[in-house]
Amino acid sequence: MKNILVPVGNSKDSFETLQYAVDFAAHFDSTVYVMEVLNVSTRAGDLANTSEKFLASSRERIRELITHIDTKTVILKAATYSGDLIDGLKELDTELGIDLIIIAPRSVEVDEELYLGSTSGGVIKRTDIPTLIVPKGVKFAPYKKILTAFKSGVLKRNRILKPLITIKKQFSSKISLLLVKTPGYTDEDLKINTALMDVSSDVTLTEHAKTYLGVLEQLKEHQPDLLCVFRRKRGFFSVLWEKNRILKSEFSVRIPVLVLSVKKY
């Protein structure tokens, strides 16, 4: 993983997500790009000023944030943008090639009932870049057990597994597969991609109304350090992602969630 992007908000806890990203990146010799997420509604006056002044102010805030973390040997750079966050993410991906985005479940949101706020949910829903969602207060530790959940074992390209395989190799992780049969499944869905089978140690098959409900049911059994899911129309969160915000009452886990992108490849 060469380039990791960390969008940070104006929350006092933003340094926690960045510290996690740095601790993670240190194992992969990655460069971490820090992008500030602005609450536009409270800074409309600022945005009316020149773009250069705005970008300079953003870079200064990022530098201040970096002073609060242990950077280890990781190179950190400010990734500035002016305008829509998602457009900024896509432009940076085109320019540099972002291998992974690391975000907190909530960015600038303060509503404790939310698992994903409008900003973090927008990143998941509107980009095709692999994303790692890190819950508040979680400190990085190598992943020893990974649960990879899906409702269809069909993958068009093996390359989408690259982040998962890279993590497995680095930490010697044990990967368990969870195939959740949901209403309307086809025989084709039950055929698991060979590359995915090759990196796993066991497979669990369960039936449930929704994929994420099957996952919640199996988390206690597997007790993973990392949950891995796929971003696709018929994949995990397919119903939840109809909107950007996701309530904790709908879905919430206390471990990091790696969301792999199917569309990009």
Summarize the structure.
This protein is of the alpha/beta class and 265 residues long. The protein has eight helices and twelve strands.
Q: Would you mind describing this structure in some detail?
A:
The chain is of the alpha/beta class. It is built from eight helices and twelve strands. The chain has helices at 14-25, 44-47, 51-66, 85-96, 118-126, 162-171, 194-198, 211-222; strands at 3-8, 31-36, 75-78, 100-103, 114-116, 131-133, 145-150, 174-181, 202-207, 226-231, 246-247, 257-261. The strands form two sheets. A ten-stranded mixed sheet has the order 3-2-1-4-6-12-10-7-8-9, with helices on both faces. Strands 5-11 form a two-stranded antiparallel sheet. The radius of gyration is 18 Å and the shape is elongated. It starts with a strand and ends with a strand. 38% of the residues are buried. Residues 39-44 and 107-111 have low confidence and may be disordered.
Which descriptors apply to this entry?
single chain; about 260 residues; alpha/beta; ten-stranded mixed sheet; 8 helices; 12 strands
Layout: helices, strands, pairs:
Blueprint: E1 3-8, H1 14-25, E2 31-36, H2 44-47, H3 51-66, E3 75-78, H4 85-96, E4 100-103, E5 114-116, H5 118-126, E6 131-133, E7 145-150, H6 162-171, E8 174-181, H7 194-198, E9 202-207, H8 211-222, E10 226-231, E11 246-247, E12 257-261
Parallel strand pairs: 1-2, 1-4, 2-3, 4-6, 7-8, 7-10, 8-9, 10-12
Antiparallel strand pairs: 5-11, 6-12
Total number of helical segments?
A: 8
Order of helices and strands: EHEHHEHEEHEEHEHEHEEE
Mean pLDDT: 82
Structural class: alpha/beta
The percentage of residues in β strands lies in: 15-25%
How many whole angstroms does the radius of gyration measure? 18 Å
Q: Cα distance, first to last residue?
A: 16 Å
Main sheet, how many strands, which sense, barrel?
Answer: 10 strands, mixed
Shape: elongated
Query: Roughly what percent helix?
Result: 25-40%
Give me the side-by-side strand order of the main sheet. Answer: 3-2-1-4-6-12-10-7-8-9
The number of strands is 12
Oligomerization: single chain
Low-confidence parts = 39-44, 107-111
